[in-house]
Amino acid sequence: MNNNVVQNITDAVTYIKSQSKVKPRIGVILGSGLGHFVSHMNVETTFPFNAIPNFIPTTVEGHSGNLILGDIDGVQLVVLQGRLHYYEGHDMNTVVFPTRVMAALGIEILIVTNSAGGYGDGMNAGDFMIIEDHINMMGTNPLMGPNIKTLGPRFPDMTQAYDKELLEMAEKIFRAQKVFFHKGTYIGVTGPTYETPSEIRMFKSMGGKAVGMSTVPEVIAANHMGLRVAAVSCITNLAAGISAHKLTHDEVTVTAKRVEKSFCDFLKEFISKI
Which residue from 111, 81, 112 is spatially nearest to 271, judged by alpha carbons? Predict the structure, then answer.
């Protein structure tokens, strides 16, 4: 199995390199409704997921399912326009496979974005949250099973899963752009149901401020492979028991569209200054 994972990564990387001259230093994962960011790139090559060996297409609205290579202000990068989720029925190796491929393409830094439900004090839909840490409530881990030594150590340290220098830079950029933001802990759950009000109260008592159905697996895989990681949530809805109405995915995509400009302005400057 381990040999298969490494070979599958190698096959995907070999194909991508055969079609592109970009040597990315930064990788970006775009969450639900945030895929418009690629319109701000100088795009060299776009690969639909199903065109890349061993990639699987996305099935979720708001996730286009493309791997894109290009640059912003001369900074070469690889972008996942959409991601795979555990709740789609994939195993964890499949969920983190695109992250591992980006790492194998040579990136040093991974920027992860997501749409999340907020329940921190003072949060409103449309706010941003710099993720300082996470709590894995998915009941599994992408590194379970025999360790793949060529990817990383058996017991990766997660003390600074989110790079402090990168988070400080993100904070400075938000302040300079006069964009309101929060900092806090992200709770990762499996989905696809939204959380119950009791679960949200529990997460808040644990120190969380936002909850979502992604990000944690990719961040674990990225740390395993030695990448520096930064992550930002777009608070696209208030969580169950905080919100006055029922939660829908439409609300997520509508809110992401509303804050699109602020999100893209932040991400462009963040990438150009790293």
Answer: 111
